[in-house]
């Protein structure tokens, strides 16, 4: 038996967040059947504790950056950034879920365990530097999310959402796996750095056409996960049918993790042949922005509206990726952080207002919210203004930074079209503002319950974060810029 | 901490303070807002008195790093061009607060908070010397106005508010693109540094590049001005906005567009400005005549005043693109005049609306007998608006026409038609509303100005007279800044003043 049969302790440290998350999740699964519903209040608290510990562990892991498990994982700044992001998303989701689950009468430990497992998967995804590891992380995250989407098992829509998400998701995963197999066949490795080495060497580089084909396969798989056009069809239905806190979670965490994988694969392994895949990303970015924004214009269901908006925002991130530069990567990272905050915030307000059985999820139900609950309305306004991209919010600075990166890489047309798109988008966000501030109170606004403590936190934290990112962006920006170097 | 920073920070602080006042104390909100706005105004007078005449660059300047990378500075300063526009904002805000004292009774707290936020945004737009900061303030000022129109406006307020927001947004996103492009090339957002780089040749664009950048900026400004045919948002926004909103919109927000043309388009893209000038002037003249003709047939008073704004702002654009010292001075002076006199018109129309609850001209008649003082003040404002000598608009219009005539005589011939038409529609309006028989609803509802209303309108009437009679209080710093801008042009050169020492400027201005 070799001496290093067990990973070195520093490697375990680099893997600590995932360990903590898995242990907490498993603990919940074990405790729940024993303790039953008596402790149902406690499960959420335990989850938050676990997530907070994992957050701390992610920060600690960054103190000794480096690879782990024979190069399967790479706990660098990039990983630390996204780990903190997805764990943060997990915490906000749990905070927004307390009252929702209580109201629907489904406050079980399993829900929280599934969130924990999904976050675990996302942490693995963002840390992985090997295609196999990426695939495993993606599956852990996805399967937990499929179940979460159908968590309200007596609800027809939730069932439809879950099934749709599962079928289409596994189909897309198959593409991804097929692509991985091709890459392995062509380059003899699944390690991103090794693939990069083969692709950039002049003598042993495989045929560009075959590599291009396998890149396209990976692009399809990842395009599905980030809900970018033309692989976005599932998103509106799934977002609408899933329980709202889960929608909030899906639109932020798994999406950010999938983008992290996107960036890592395309900016590490396939970076040498960037001019080949850039048109693909260019086109997908434009399609996502345009389809997302124009389809959102006519939506009457707020969850669908936000679903289309999230497709459009995926398009903005793709603009940053199409820039193929370190600034572009940093811009994408910054934008994903800003987007996660504002989107979770917006969905949390929807969860708050929707009432039992999600009766109130139409845009009209927001009518007069400002008169009944000025504080909630003000918070939602902050998120919406950030989604529009008004200065002093994270959303604005994110967009600014993305388009700056795009112009640096001479993507003038994409920038112009993207900017015009963001003007179109203003219309549907304004509709919600109009409803809240300029109409008479609706039934939903009149009967809205007071803000639950957890929900209040789930709204105030992202709002503060949105302003911090908008007014003092350098706090995050510097870190993102520093850790955007992916091909070490 | 310079005076300018305090003037800029006070409204923002006031906005935050009002958010923490309990909802059930509207009177406290009003008093607090008025107090802050008045203090801001008094302090801002210090900017005018403290502006040194021997320095041509920005004064009261602060330049500190806000975001290190990309390098964005909090860089503000005031020069002759921005000084009076900033003062116009600080003057009109307390007036608008006082004006809404009784008429705004729902969501009082939000109303005054947004009004102060608007003031913050407007002063910021005029004071910014960093392109990013300028854009940030430009967009920030959009949000409170959107809510002011949408929440406290009239019947079709929502349509108007959304239209206003989308028009402005559509224009300004392209400007953002141009600003980023400039930054990528110049490596800085600093306005003065960029200008230096242009003049030293360190930063140069090909002529098509320059044209596209110019157009991106120009479109944003032209929508805001609004230049014909981009003006269609304006009548809606003006008519539907509450009085305070109309006043701020007409008096100050429209000037953001013309200010931007003078501050950014001309100095940064002189070549493209020159190439586009004939086209822009044609649009401006069409706007002057079209606006006046449409104003003439309006049955609604607010709409009439709104279209008259299109016409007046056409003069400003004409003056700017004549590239002559007189034209440019007149344009800047006309921005201020329009702010004062059209602001006053909106206020007076608002007074009538508060009494009779109608904006239709047909619902009025014989108001002069029911409210003689109101009629007198309205008359002075009307005469100011149509450019009677000794009142403010005359000076601006005269300078613009003179400047335009120097550049191309035909331009001023056509533009002068607008002056005649403005007399037609304004006097006709006055006749229909204030003279003739007094119908019963007017006689029973319309009362004369009360003390609060006197306090609102007197400062503006004083300004009309002051600016019409003693131009020298206002023009010298404007002339100085404009001369610096025009020095970059090689066209209409014989009409330019070559940055003379201070005494000469006074003489030049005096000679007019």
Can you give a write-up of this model?
The complex is a heterodimer of chains A (488) and B (512). By secondary structure, chain A is an all-alpha fold. Chain A has 21 helices and two strands. In chain A, 62% of the residues are buried. Chain B has a domain at 269-512. A two-stranded antiparallel ribbon of chain B has the order 1-2. Classes of the chains: A mainly alpha (488), B mainly alpha (512).
> What does the overall shape of chain A look like?
globular
> What distance lies between the first and last C-alpha atoms of chain B, to the nearest angstrom?
38 Å
Query: How would you describe the oligomerization state of the chains in this entry?
Result: heterodimer
Q: Which structural class fits the helix and strand makeup of chain A?
A: mainly alpha
Give keywords.
heterodimer; A: mainly alpha; two-stranded antiparallel sheet; about 75% helix; about 0% strand; globular; B: 22 helices
Describe the secondary structure blueprint for this structure.
The complex is a heterodimer of chains A (488) and B (512).
Chain A: H1 9-14, H2 16-35, H3 40-63, E1 66-68, E2 73-75, H4 77-104, H5 109-127, H6 131-149, H7 156-187, H8 192-200, H9 208-225, H10 234-241, H11 244-269, H12 274-296, H13 302-322, H14 326-353, H15 369-372, H16 374-388, H17 394-408, H18 412-438, H19 443-447, H20 453-471, H21 474-483
Antiparallel strand pairs in A: 1-2
Chain B: H1 3-19, H2 26-50, E1 59-67, E2 72-78, H3 80-99, H4 108-127, H5 131-140, H6 142-152, H7 157-186, H8 191-200, H9 207-224, H10 233-240, H11 243-268, H12 270-296, H13 301-320, H14 325-356, H15 367-370, H16 372-385, H17 392-407, H18 409-434, H19 440-445, H20 451-469, H21 475-486, H22 502-511
Antiparallel strand pairs in B: 1-2
Helix pairs in contact in B: 1-2, 1-4, 2-3, 2-4, 3-4, 3-11, 3-14, 3-20, 4-5, 4-6, 4-11, 5-7, 6-7, 7-9, 7-10, 9-11, 10-11, 10-13, 11-13, 11-14, 12-13, 12-18, 13-14, 13-17, 13-18, 14-16, 14-17, 14-20, 14-21, 16-18, 17-18, 17-20, 21-22
């Amino acid at each position: 038996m070799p001496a290093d049969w067990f990973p070195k302790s520093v490697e375990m440290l680099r893997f600590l967040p995932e360990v903590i998350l898995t242990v907490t999740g498993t603990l919940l699964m074990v405790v729940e059947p024993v303790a039953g519903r008596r402790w149902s209040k406690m499960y959420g608290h335990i989850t938050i504790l676990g997530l907070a510990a994992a957050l701390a562990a992610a920060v600690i892991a960054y103190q000794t950056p480096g690879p782990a498990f024979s190069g399967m994982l790479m706990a660098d700044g990039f990983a630390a950034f996204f780990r903190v992001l997805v764990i943060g998303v997990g915490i906000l989701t749990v905070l927004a879920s307390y009252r929702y689950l209580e109201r629907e009468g489904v406050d079980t430990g399993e829900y929280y365990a599934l969130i924990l497992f999904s976050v675990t998967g996302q942490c693995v995804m963002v840390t992985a530097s090997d295609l196999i590891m990426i695939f495993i992380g993606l599956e852990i995250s996805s399967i937990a999310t499929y179940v979460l989407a159908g968590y309200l098992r007596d609800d027809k829509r939730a069932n439809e959402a879950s099934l749709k998400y599962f079928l289409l998701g596994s189909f897309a995963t198959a593409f991804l796996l097929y692509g991985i197999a091709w890459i392995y066949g062509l380059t003899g490795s699944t390690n991103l750095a090794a693939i990069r080495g083969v692709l950039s060497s002049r003598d042993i580089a495989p045929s560009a056409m075959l590599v291009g084909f396998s890149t396209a396969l990976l692009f399809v798989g990842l395009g599905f996960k980030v809900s970018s056009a033309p692989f976005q069809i599932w998103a509106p239905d799934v977002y609408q049918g899933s329980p709202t806190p889960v929608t909030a979670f899906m639109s932020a965490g798994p999406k950010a993790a999938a983008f992290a994988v996107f960036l890592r694969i395309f900016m590490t392994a396939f970076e040498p042949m960037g001019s080949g895949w850039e048109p693909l990303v260019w086109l997908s970015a434009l399609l996502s922005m345009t389809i997302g924004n124009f389809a959102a214009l006519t939506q009457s269901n707020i969850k669908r509206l936000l679903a289309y908006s999230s497709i459009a925002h995926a398009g903005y991130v793709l603009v940053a990726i199409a820039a193929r530069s370190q600034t572009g990567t940093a811009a994408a990272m910054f934008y994903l952080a800003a987007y996660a905050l504002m989107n979770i915030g917006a969905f949390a307000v929807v969860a708050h207002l929707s009432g039992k059985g999600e009766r109130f999820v139409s845009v009209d139900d927001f009518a007069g919210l400002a008169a009944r609950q000025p504080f909630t309305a003000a918070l939602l306004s902050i998120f919406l203004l950030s989604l529009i991209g008004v200065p002093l919010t994270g959303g604005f600075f994110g967009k600014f930074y993305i388009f700056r990166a795009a112009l640096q890489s001479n993507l003038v047309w994409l920038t112009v079209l993207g900017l015009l798109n963001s003007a179109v988008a203003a219309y549907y966000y304004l509709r919600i503002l109009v409803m809240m501030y300029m109409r008479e109170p609706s039934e939903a606004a009149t009967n809205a319950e007071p803000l639950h403590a957890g929900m209040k936190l789930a709204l105030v934290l992202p709002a503060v974060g949105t302003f911090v990112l908008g007014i003092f962006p350098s706090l995050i920006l510097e870190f993102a810029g520093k850790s955007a170097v992916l091909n070490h | 901490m310079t005076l300018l920073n305090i003037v800029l920070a006070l409204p923002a602080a006031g906005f935050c303070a009002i958010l923490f006042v309990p909802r059930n104390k509207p009177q406290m909100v009003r008093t607090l807002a008025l107090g802050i706005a008045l203090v801001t105004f008094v302090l801002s007078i210090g900017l005018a008195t403290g502006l040194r005449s021997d320095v041509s660059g920005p004064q009261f300047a602060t330049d500190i790093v806000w975001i290190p990378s990309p390098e964005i500075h909090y860089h503000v300063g005031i020069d002759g061009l921005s000084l009076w526009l900033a003062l116009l904002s600080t003057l009109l805000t307390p007036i608008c607060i006082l004006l809404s004292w009784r008429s705004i009774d729902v969501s009082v707290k939000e109303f005054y908070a947004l009004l102060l936020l608007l003031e913050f945004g407007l002063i910021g737009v005029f004071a910014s010397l960093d392109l990013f900061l300028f854009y940030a303030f430009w967009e920030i000022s959009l949000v409170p106005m959107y809510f002011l129109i949408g929440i406290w406006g009239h019947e079709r307020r929502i349509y108007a508010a959304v239209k206003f927001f989308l028009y402005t947004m559509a224009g300004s996103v392209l400007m953002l693109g141009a600003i980023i492009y400039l930054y990528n090339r110049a490596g800085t957002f600093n306005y003065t540094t960029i200008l230096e780089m242009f003049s030293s040749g360190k930063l140069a664009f090909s002529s098509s590049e320059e044209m596209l950048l110019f157009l991106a900026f120009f479109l944003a400004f032209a929508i805001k001005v609004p230049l014909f045919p981009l003006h269609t948002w304006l009548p809606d926004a003006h008519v539907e906005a509450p009085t305070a909103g109309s006043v701020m919109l007409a008096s100050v927000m429209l000037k953001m567009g013309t200010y931007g043309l003078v501050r950014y388009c001309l100095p940064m893209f002189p070549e493209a400005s020159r190439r586009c000038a004939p086209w822009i002037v044609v649009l401006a003249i069409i706007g002057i005549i079209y606006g006046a003709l449409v104003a003439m047939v309006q049955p609604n008073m607010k709409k009439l005043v709104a279209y008259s704004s299109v016409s007046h702002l056409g003069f400003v654009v004409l003056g700017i693109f004549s590239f002559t010292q007189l034209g440019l001075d007149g344009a800047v002076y006309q921005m201020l005049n329009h702010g004062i006199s059209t602001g006053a018109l909106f206020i007076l129309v608002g007074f009538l609306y508060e009494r009779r609850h109608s904006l239709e001209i047909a619902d009025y008649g014989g108001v002069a007998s029911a409210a003689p003082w109101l009629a007198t003040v309205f008359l002075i404002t009307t005469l100011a608006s149509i450019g009677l000598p000794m009142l403010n608009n005359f000076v601006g219009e005269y300078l613009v026409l003179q400047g335009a005539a120097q550049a191309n005589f035909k331009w001023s011939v056509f533009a002068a038609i607008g002056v005649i038409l403005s007399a037609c529609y304004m006097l006709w309006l006055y006749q229909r509303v204030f003279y003739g028989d007094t119908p019963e609803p007017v006689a029973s509802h319309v009362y004369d100005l009360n003390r609060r209303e006197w306090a609102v309108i007197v400062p503006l009437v004083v300004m009309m007279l002051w600016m019409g009679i003693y131009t020298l209080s206002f023009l010298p710093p404007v002339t100085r800044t404009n001369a610096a801008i025009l020095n970059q042009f090689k066209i209409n050169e014989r009409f330019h003043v070559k940055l003379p020492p201070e005494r000469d400027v006074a003489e030049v201005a005096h000679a007019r």
